[in-house]
């Protein structure tokens, strides 16, 4: 595997020659590789290459751009297993989930490729005679993409493929916990035959690479997924030059379980939502809002099932929950356990690092459950990003929705009920970008918009045709073939 940046169609070391190391979070003694610790100089080279390539890429007919993306999708599918295994080794999610992450990239490639033959605008009936009017999408220029570590393929491709099909060129900076997955994606892009400079990859930290990207005047659109804290800073910086920026940020997602719910189904959903990807999904279920009539029974069953989850190296068959992404996450999650106990919530399962036997080789955290949580507690308000779920109770569907809405975030949500009326009211009243009925808070499909409200973002969406709005500008065209000056809106 390559361990370099990819700039202007060439694999290249960082100009300063510094590197950083990437290790397996399930086996900390296992080094995966060393990648360039790049800086503003590397960003400048990559942006210059992307800006040059934009001059010709924007003129390639969109269906042709789409054909290249079809090829990218086919090559990703061929290398799916290899990429998934590398992903599990470098960020810990269990292999079936890593395969799902790559599959999302494949799906996005085929979806965006098809857009090459659509990218529809509007043709309207003009209000004046002998005149035509229509709108068309135009590319913006160089797109800067800054991504987190929890979905190394899915999030990078959600951004990159719509950007490319619209005619932009891109520079990707992946999170420094996942350089290998991003590198394999670029090996595929190179093999698919994308022209030099159309896609560029620069590894490194947020401060040394991300920050210069945000500040670079020739990056015309910035798409960021990560924490709300960093997202707010980026929005402020972009505001200074009115740079277009799309932000997909944190979540504090809740699953409601009402007294008429299918409890078996709700239990499966809660386990998958709370502990899948070790709770490190932006859409993870970090709150469960249980109707008082079923709360005791549901809690007991949840704790029993969560206790039985098998922790381990995600490459091993039968492992349910992998490690957290790096050593620093263990104290960060443990701090929230302390906060929850100080606030008066009851710890009913887990609460600390898991170090038995082989687990001592990696960074594992026990599946953790708090009950007797009240809506104002910090563990009910703040994103923990680990295998921790807070259980709250409610007396009605309305109260459940009020509790669900009572945080600064608004990404995903879920309600389990057999009552269509209650479900419909919840769909209407929940303040979130995504609502699941009788499904967990996780499991997006690539042809529908993905994103959230309130402090989860700034109004843009990934995936579906909504992603095209981030990466294109509308141009409105009027053609007057009357041969005389016609004045719109002016009385004759
Ligand atoms: P993070 O904000 O620490 O980092 C995200 C990316 O930003 C990384 O590539 C990082 O290097 C870069 N970065 C950091 N500081 C920067 C700066 N000053 N300027 C420019 N770039 C900078 O987030 P993370 O820990 O990688 O990911 C977890 C967070 O991402 C969680 O809050 C999670 O909810 C969120 N997330 C949101 C979505 C969504 O679609 N809403 C999806 C996945 C993850």
Describe this structure in words.
Helices cover 39% and strands 22% of the residues. With 492 residues, the protein is α/β, with parallel strands linked by helices. The chain folds into 2 domains: 5-249 and 457-477, 3-Layer(aba) Sandwich (Aldehyde Dehydrogenase, Chain A, domain 1), CATH 3.40.605.10; 253-437, Aldehyde Dehydrogenase, Chain A, domain 2 (3-Layer(aba) Sandwich). Strands 14-15-16-13-12-18-19 form a 7-stranded mixed sheet, with helices on both faces. Strands 9-8-7-10-11 form a 5-stranded parallel sheet, with helices on both faces. The protein has a 3-stranded antiparallel sheet with strand order 5-6-21. α8 (228-241) links the parallel β10 (219-225) and β11 (244-248). α2 (62-78) runs antiparallel to α4 (95-115). The longest helix has 21 residues, at 95-115. The chain starts with a strand and ends in a 12-residue tail after the last strand. 51% of the residues are buried. The mean pLDDT is 97.
